[in-house]
Amino acid sequence: MLHVDIPTRGDLEELIQDRGPARVSLYLPTTPLTQQAQADRIALKNLVGDALGQLADHDKREVRALEELLLDLVDDDEFWAVQANGLAVFATPAGLRTFRLPTRLQPMAEVSDRFHVKPLLRVVTVPQSAFVLALTPDSVRVVEVSADMPAFAVKVADMPKDAASAAGRASIKERSPSGRIQGAEGMKVRLGQYARKVDQALRELLAGRDLPLVLVATEPMLSIYRSVQSYARLAPTSVTTNPDSMSDSELAAAARSVLDELFVAELAGIKALFEQRKGEQRATTDVAQAARAATYGAVQKLLVDIDEVLPGTVDEEGKVTLAAGSSSASYGVVDEIAGRALLTGARVLGVRREDIPGGGSLAAILRYPF
Q1: Where would I find the H helices in the chain?
Q2: pTM of the shown model
Q3: Can you give the C-alpha Rg of the chain in angstroms?
Q4: 32 pLDDT exceeds 50?
Protein backbone atom coordinates (compact mmCIF):
# COMPACT_ATOMS: atom_id res chain seq x y z
CA MET A 1 0.00 0.00 0.00
CA LEU A 2 1.23 3.51 -0.83
CA HIS A 3 1.37 5.98 2.05
CA VAL A 4 0.86 9.38 0.45
CA ASP A 5 0.30 13.00 1.49
CA ILE A 6 -1.16 14.89 -1.46
CA PRO A 7 -0.64 18.67 -1.20
CA THR A 8 -3.77 20.76 -1.46
CA ARG A 9 -4.00 23.97 -3.46
CA GLY A 10 -3.70 25.78 -0.12
CA ASP A 11 -0.45 23.92 0.60
CA LEU A 12 0.88 24.94 -2.80
CA GLU A 13 -0.01 28.57 -2.28
CA GLU A 14 1.70 28.61 1.13
CA LEU A 15 4.85 27.13 -0.34
CA ILE A 16 4.80 29.51 -3.31
CA GLN A 17 4.48 32.58 -1.10
CA ASP A 18 7.07 31.52 1.49
CA ARG A 19 10.19 33.68 1.25
CA GLY A 20 13.45 33.63 3.19
CA PRO A 21 17.21 33.57 2.73
CA ALA A 22 17.49 29.76 2.81
CA ARG A 23 14.69 27.68 1.30
CA VAL A 24 15.68 24.11 0.42
CA SER A 25 13.56 21.95 -1.93
CA LEU A 26 14.49 18.26 -2.33
CA TYR A 27 12.83 15.67 -4.56
CA LEU A 28 13.65 12.01 -4.99
CA PRO A 29 12.05 8.75 -6.14
CA THR A 30 11.33 6.33 -3.29
CA THR A 31 10.00 2.82 -2.78
CA PRO A 32 7.00 1.69 -0.70
CA LEU A 33 8.96 -1.48 0.18
CA THR A 34 10.35 -0.84 3.67
CA GLN A 35 13.14 -3.40 3.27
CA GLN A 36 14.51 -1.41 0.31
CA ALA A 37 14.28 2.03 1.92
CA GLN A 38 17.97 2.24 2.85
CA ALA A 39 18.91 3.27 -0.68
CA ASP A 40 16.35 6.09 -0.53
CA ARG A 41 17.83 7.36 2.72
CA ILE A 42 21.28 7.43 1.15
CA ALA A 43 19.86 9.26 -1.87
CA LEU A 44 18.29 11.89 0.39
CA LYS A 45 21.54 12.29 2.33
CA ASN A 46 23.38 12.93 -0.96
CA LEU A 47 20.78 15.54 -1.97
CA VAL A 48 21.19 17.21 1.43
CA GLY A 49 24.92 17.43 0.74
CA ASP A 50 24.23 19.05 -2.64
CA ALA A 51 21.86 21.58 -1.07
CA LEU A 52 24.25 22.50 1.75
CA GLY A 53 27.01 22.94 -0.82
CA GLN A 54 24.91 25.65 -2.50
CA LEU A 55 24.74 27.41 0.88
CA ALA A 56 28.51 27.57 1.40
CA ASP A 57 28.49 31.38 1.70
CA HIS A 58 25.31 31.54 3.77
CA ASP A 59 24.89 32.23 7.50
CA LYS A 60 26.60 29.29 9.24
CA ARG A 61 24.04 29.02 12.04
CA GLU A 62 21.18 28.71 9.56
CA VAL A 63 23.12 26.15 7.53
CA ARG A 64 23.75 24.07 10.67
CA ALA A 65 20.06 24.27 11.59
CA LEU A 66 19.08 23.07 8.13
CA GLU A 67 21.64 20.27 8.23
CA GLU A 68 20.38 19.06 11.59
CA LEU A 69 16.74 19.05 10.49
CA LEU A 70 17.44 17.24 7.24
CA LEU A 71 19.78 14.62 8.71
CA ASP A 72 17.26 13.97 11.48
CA LEU A 73 14.82 13.08 8.70
CA VAL A 74 17.40 10.75 7.12
CA ASP A 75 17.79 8.99 10.50
CA ASP A 76 14.05 8.69 11.24
CA ASP A 77 13.35 4.94 11.01
CA GLU A 78 9.58 5.32 11.44
CA PHE A 79 9.37 7.87 8.64
CA TRP A 80 11.13 5.57 6.16
CA ALA A 81 8.98 2.59 7.09
CA VAL A 82 5.97 4.10 5.29
CA GLN A 83 6.78 5.61 1.90
CA ALA A 84 5.30 5.87 -1.59
CA ASN A 85 6.84 6.37 -5.06
CA GLY A 86 8.23 9.85 -4.55
CA LEU A 87 9.21 12.23 -1.76
CA ALA A 88 9.27 16.04 -1.63
CA VAL A 89 11.01 17.84 1.25
CA PHE A 90 10.80 21.59 1.90
CA ALA A 91 13.11 22.90 4.61
CA THR A 92 13.94 26.21 6.27
CA PRO A 93 16.19 26.77 9.28
CA ALA A 94 13.01 26.82 11.39
CA GLY A 95 11.38 23.57 10.21
CA LEU A 96 10.50 21.27 7.33
CA ARG A 97 7.51 19.77 5.52
CA THR A 98 7.36 16.51 3.60
CA PHE A 99 4.94 15.09 1.04
CA ARG A 100 4.94 11.40 0.11
CA LEU A 101 3.75 11.21 -3.47
CA PRO A 102 2.26 8.53 -5.74
CA THR A 103 4.40 9.55 -8.74
CA ARG A 104 8.10 8.94 -9.28
CA LEU A 105 10.19 12.09 -9.34
CA GLN A 106 13.55 13.07 -10.76
CA PRO A 107 16.20 13.60 -8.02
CA MET A 108 16.60 17.31 -7.44
CA ALA A 109 18.12 19.71 -4.87
CA GLU A 110 17.14 23.37 -5.26
CA VAL A 111 18.20 26.19 -2.93
CA SER A 112 16.97 29.77 -3.14
CA ASP A 113 14.96 32.41 -1.31
CA ARG A 114 11.79 30.51 -2.34
CA PHE A 115 10.70 26.89 -2.69
CA HIS A 116 10.76 25.00 -5.98
CA VAL A 117 7.22 23.58 -6.28
CA LYS A 118 6.85 22.74 -9.98
CA PRO A 119 7.30 18.94 -9.57
CA LEU A 120 4.33 18.93 -7.17
CA LEU A 121 2.08 20.19 -9.95
CA ARG A 122 2.02 16.76 -11.59
CA VAL A 123 0.44 15.31 -8.46
CA VAL A 124 -2.24 17.97 -8.10
CA THR A 125 -2.80 18.13 -11.88
CA VAL A 126 -4.05 14.55 -12.26
CA PRO A 127 -7.33 14.01 -10.35
CA GLN A 128 -6.68 11.89 -7.27
CA SER A 129 -10.07 11.93 -5.53
CA ALA A 130 -13.61 11.08 -6.56
CA PHE A 131 -16.89 9.50 -5.51
CA VAL A 132 -17.98 6.21 -7.03
CA LEU A 133 -21.66 5.37 -7.50
CA ALA A 134 -22.05 1.59 -7.79
CA LEU A 135 -25.60 1.13 -9.04
CA THR A 136 -27.76 -1.86 -9.93
CA PRO A 137 -31.54 -2.39 -9.70
CA ASP A 138 -30.91 -4.43 -6.55
CA SER A 139 -28.35 -2.29 -4.73
CA VAL A 140 -26.68 1.10 -4.51
CA ARG A 141 -23.36 1.98 -2.90
CA VAL A 142 -21.34 5.20 -2.72
CA VAL A 143 -17.59 4.92 -2.23
CA GLU A 144 -15.23 7.81 -1.56
CA VAL A 145 -11.83 7.57 -3.25
CA SER A 146 -8.87 9.71 -2.17
CA ALA A 147 -5.16 9.64 -2.76
CA ASP A 148 -4.10 9.41 0.87
CA MET A 149 -6.71 7.10 2.43
CA PRO A 150 -8.15 3.66 1.63
CA ALA A 151 -11.46 3.79 -0.24
CA PHE A 152 -14.50 3.54 2.01
CA ALA A 153 -18.28 3.32 1.66
CA VAL A 154 -20.22 6.50 2.48
CA LYS A 155 -23.59 6.42 4.21
CA VAL A 156 -25.99 8.71 2.36
CA ALA A 157 -29.17 9.91 4.01
CA ASP A 158 -32.45 8.96 2.28
CA MET A 159 -30.67 6.71 -0.21
CA PRO A 160 -33.09 4.00 -1.46
CA LYS A 161 -32.05 0.41 -0.83
CA ASP A 162 -33.01 -0.81 -4.30
CA ALA A 163 -35.39 -0.14 -7.19
CA ALA A 164 -38.30 -2.08 -5.69
CA SER A 165 -38.26 -0.26 -2.36
CA ALA A 166 -37.88 3.06 -4.18
CA ALA A 167 -41.12 2.30 -5.99
CA GLY A 168 -42.81 0.99 -2.83
CA ARG A 169 -43.15 -2.46 -4.38
CA ALA A 170 -42.01 -5.96 -3.54
CA SER A 171 -40.70 -6.23 -7.10
CA ILE A 172 -40.30 -3.81 -10.01
CA LYS A 173 -42.00 -6.45 -12.18
CA GLU A 174 -45.33 -5.89 -10.40
CA ARG A 175 -48.00 -4.18 -12.48
CA SER A 176 -49.46 -0.91 -11.29
CA PRO A 177 -53.11 -0.87 -10.06
CA SER A 178 -54.20 0.59 -13.41
CA GLY A 179 -52.25 -2.06 -15.29
CA ARG A 180 -50.45 0.68 -17.23
CA ILE A 181 -46.96 0.07 -15.73
CA GLN A 182 -46.01 -3.49 -16.61
CA GLY A 183 -43.53 -5.54 -18.63
CA ALA A 184 -40.26 -4.10 -19.97
CA GLU A 185 -41.70 -0.59 -20.27
CA GLY A 186 -42.98 -0.78 -16.71
CA MET A 187 -39.53 -1.82 -15.44
CA LYS A 188 -38.03 1.17 -17.24
CA VAL A 189 -40.46 3.49 -15.48
CA ARG A 190 -39.63 1.95 -12.08
CA LEU A 191 -35.88 2.19 -12.73
CA GLY A 192 -36.31 5.85 -13.69
CA GLN A 193 -38.10 6.51 -10.37
CA TYR A 194 -35.27 4.73 -8.57
CA ALA A 195 -32.57 6.70 -10.43
CA ARG A 196 -34.22 10.00 -9.57
CA LYS A 197 -34.35 9.10 -5.88
CA VAL A 198 -30.68 8.08 -5.96
CA ASP A 199 -29.81 11.41 -7.61
CA GLN A 200 -31.87 13.32 -5.08
CA ALA A 201 -30.16 11.55 -2.16
CA LEU A 202 -26.74 12.38 -3.61
CA ARG A 203 -27.46 16.09 -3.88
CA GLU A 204 -26.75 16.85 -0.23
CA LEU A 205 -23.54 14.80 -0.25
CA LEU A 206 -22.23 16.41 -3.44
CA ALA A 207 -23.49 19.98 -2.88
CA GLY A 208 -20.60 22.43 -3.19
CA ARG A 209 -18.16 19.69 -4.21
CA ASP A 210 -15.97 19.72 -7.27
CA LEU A 211 -15.01 16.04 -7.25
CA PRO A 212 -15.79 13.75 -10.18
CA LEU A 213 -18.55 11.16 -9.73
CA VAL A 214 -17.73 7.87 -11.45
CA LEU A 215 -20.68 5.63 -12.32
CA VAL A 216 -20.23 1.85 -12.17
CA ALA A 217 -23.29 0.17 -13.70
CA THR A 218 -24.61 -1.88 -16.61
CA GLU A 219 -27.47 -1.31 -19.02
CA PRO A 220 -30.24 -0.34 -18.77
CA MET A 221 -29.47 1.14 -15.34
CA LEU A 222 -26.47 3.04 -16.67
CA SER A 223 -28.34 4.95 -19.39
CA ILE A 224 -31.40 5.54 -17.22
CA TYR A 225 -29.34 7.08 -14.43
CA ARG A 226 -27.41 9.29 -16.85
CA SER A 227 -30.70 10.55 -18.33
CA VAL A 228 -32.03 11.84 -15.00
CA GLN A 229 -28.98 12.75 -12.90
CA SER A 230 -28.17 16.38 -12.03
CA TYR A 231 -24.53 16.45 -10.87
CA ALA A 232 -22.37 18.51 -13.25
CA ARG A 233 -19.19 16.57 -12.49
CA LEU A 234 -20.48 13.12 -13.43
CA ALA A 235 -17.57 11.58 -15.37
CA PRO A 236 -18.41 11.16 -19.07
CA THR A 237 -16.90 7.66 -19.01
CA SER A 238 -18.56 4.95 -16.91
CA VAL A 239 -17.26 1.61 -15.70
CA THR A 240 -19.60 -0.83 -17.43
CA THR A 241 -19.56 -3.82 -15.13
CA ASN A 242 -21.80 -5.24 -12.40
CA PRO A 243 -20.45 -3.73 -9.16
CA ASP A 244 -22.20 -6.12 -6.76
CA SER A 245 -19.19 -8.43 -6.47
CA MET A 246 -16.59 -5.64 -6.34
CA SER A 247 -14.94 -4.52 -3.11
CA ASP A 248 -14.52 -0.84 -2.23
CA SER A 249 -10.85 -1.01 -3.22
CA GLU A 250 -11.72 -2.62 -6.57
CA LEU A 251 -14.23 0.13 -7.26
CA ALA A 252 -11.56 2.70 -6.39
CA ALA A 253 -9.09 1.10 -8.80
CA ALA A 254 -11.68 1.18 -11.57
CA ALA A 255 -12.45 4.82 -10.79
CA ARG A 256 -8.79 5.82 -10.98
CA SER A 257 -8.58 4.58 -14.55
CA VAL A 258 -11.49 6.90 -15.35
CA LEU A 259 -9.72 9.78 -13.58
CA ASP A 260 -6.66 9.18 -15.76
CA GLU A 261 -8.91 9.40 -18.83
CA LEU A 262 -10.32 12.71 -17.58
CA PHE A 263 -6.81 14.14 -17.36
CA VAL A 264 -5.90 12.91 -20.84
CA ALA A 265 -9.08 14.48 -22.21
CA GLU A 266 -8.41 17.79 -20.43
CA LEU A 267 -4.85 17.88 -21.75
CA ALA A 268 -6.06 17.23 -25.29
CA GLY A 269 -8.59 20.05 -24.93
CA ILE A 270 -5.92 22.46 -23.73
CA LYS A 271 -3.66 21.57 -26.66
CA ALA A 272 -6.50 22.17 -29.11
CA LEU A 273 -7.32 25.51 -27.45
CA PHE A 274 -3.65 26.49 -27.59
CA GLU A 275 -3.60 25.98 -31.36
CA GLN A 276 -6.77 28.04 -31.71
CA ARG A 277 -5.47 30.87 -29.52
CA LYS A 278 -2.17 31.12 -31.42
CA GLY A 279 -3.97 32.76 -34.31
CA GLU A 280 -5.51 35.26 -31.88
CA GLN A 281 -2.14 36.18 -30.29
CA ARG A 282 -3.35 34.64 -27.05
CA ALA A 283 -0.90 31.74 -26.77
CA THR A 284 2.85 31.57 -26.30
CA THR A 285 5.73 29.18 -25.66
CA ASP A 286 8.13 32.06 -25.03
CA VAL A 287 9.37 32.04 -21.43
CA ALA A 288 9.93 35.81 -21.31
CA GLN A 289 6.45 36.61 -22.63
CA ALA A 290 4.84 34.05 -20.31
CA ALA A 291 6.68 35.56 -17.33
CA ARG A 292 5.30 39.02 -18.04
CA ALA A 293 1.81 37.65 -18.68
CA ALA A 294 1.84 35.64 -15.43
CA THR A 295 3.04 38.68 -13.48
CA TYR A 296 0.06 40.73 -14.68
CA GLY A 297 -2.53 37.98 -14.30
CA ALA A 298 -2.96 37.42 -18.03
CA VAL A 299 -2.41 33.64 -18.02
CA GLN A 300 -5.56 31.53 -18.24
CA LYS A 301 -4.01 28.05 -18.64
CA LEU A 302 -0.40 26.97 -18.36
CA LEU A 303 1.45 23.75 -19.15
CA VAL A 304 4.92 23.41 -17.60
CA ASP A 305 7.64 20.78 -17.85
CA ILE A 306 7.93 19.37 -14.32
CA ASP A 307 11.46 17.99 -14.80
CA GLU A 308 13.43 20.92 -16.25
CA VAL A 309 14.97 23.64 -14.10
CA LEU A 310 15.79 26.86 -15.95
CA PRO A 311 17.86 28.88 -13.43
CA GLY A 312 17.48 32.64 -13.22
CA THR A 313 15.26 35.31 -11.72
CA VAL A 314 12.02 37.14 -12.58
CA ASP A 315 11.66 40.71 -11.35
CA GLU A 316 8.51 42.48 -10.17
CA GLU A 317 7.71 43.58 -13.73
CA GLY A 318 8.08 40.05 -15.08
CA LYS A 319 11.49 40.54 -16.72
CA VAL A 320 13.48 37.29 -16.92
CA THR A 321 17.22 37.16 -16.27
CA LEU A 322 18.75 33.74 -16.89
CA ALA A 323 21.67 32.43 -14.82
CA ALA A 324 24.62 30.31 -15.90
CA GLY A 325 23.76 27.61 -13.37
CA SER A 326 21.87 26.80 -10.19
CA SER A 327 22.83 28.66 -7.02
CA SER A 328 21.20 30.11 -3.95
CA ALA A 329 21.08 33.47 -5.78
CA SER A 330 18.76 32.11 -8.49
CA TYR A 331 15.72 29.83 -8.77
CA GLY A 332 13.70 28.02 -11.41
CA VAL A 333 12.27 30.64 -13.76
CA VAL A 334 9.48 28.40 -15.06
CA ASP A 335 8.69 27.42 -11.47
CA GLU A 336 8.30 31.11 -10.61
CA ILE A 337 6.06 31.67 -13.65
CA ALA A 338 3.88 28.73 -12.60
CA GLY A 339 3.58 30.11 -9.09
CA ARG A 340 2.58 33.58 -10.26
CA ALA A 341 0.01 32.11 -12.67
CA LEU A 342 -1.43 29.85 -9.98
CA LEU A 343 -1.83 32.74 -7.53
CA THR A 344 -3.78 34.75 -10.14
CA GLY A 345 -6.30 31.97 -10.76
CA ALA A 346 -4.77 30.20 -13.76
CA ARG A 347 -5.21 26.48 -14.35
CA VAL A 348 -1.62 25.21 -14.14
CA LEU A 349 -0.75 21.66 -15.20
CA GLY A 350 2.57 19.96 -14.57
CA VAL A 351 3.30 17.63 -17.49
CA ARG A 352 6.18 15.95 -19.33
CA ARG A 353 7.95 17.90 -22.07
CA GLU A 354 6.42 15.76 -24.82
CA ASP A 355 2.95 16.93 -23.73
CA ILE A 356 3.81 20.61 -24.26
CA PRO A 357 3.01 22.16 -27.68
CA GLY A 358 6.31 22.91 -29.37
CA GLY A 359 8.21 20.69 -26.93
CA GLY A 360 9.51 23.62 -24.89
CA SER A 361 9.60 24.50 -21.21
CA LEU A 362 6.04 25.80 -21.13
CA ALA A 363 2.95 26.70 -23.12
CA ALA A 364 0.61 29.46 -21.96
CA ILE A 365 -2.91 30.33 -23.05
CA LEU A 366 -3.66 33.97 -22.30
CA ARG A 367 -6.86 35.66 -21.19
CA TYR A 368 -6.30 38.44 -23.71
CA PRO A 369 -3.57 39.42 -26.23
CA PHE A 370 -0.48 40.44 -24.27
Answers
A1: 9-17, 37-53, 60-74, 77-80, 121-125, 163-166, 183-206, 221-228, 248-278, 287-295, 333-343
A2: 0.82
A3: 25
A4: yes
